[in-house]
Predict the 3D structure of the following.
Amino acid sequence: MLNLVKSKLFICREWHVQPSEIDRLQYFEFEQMCEEIEKYNKEQEKQSKEQQKQYDQVQSSMKNMNSVSNYNNITKQMNNSLPKISIPKLT
């Protein structure tokens, strides 16, 4: 009984279905609806994980690019900040 109530609550909240509409369903229809919702949720979770993985890969590559860029900037600044000395030639 508790699972039935939880399932109805979930369907009402997430899918914006009135409880009276769920009550009108025959039990096998309700079971089928719950199974389809479960499949849908698993598919959404799978897609979400794939997107997160892609996002993490992009962030990692951006971080690596930034570190290389920072290194290049630092070396350029060091080269620019070194004094230039000209040594006279003895003849």
User: Anything to note?
Assistant: The helical segments are 2-15, 19-24, 27-81. Residues 2-65 form one domain. The longest helix spans residues 27-81.
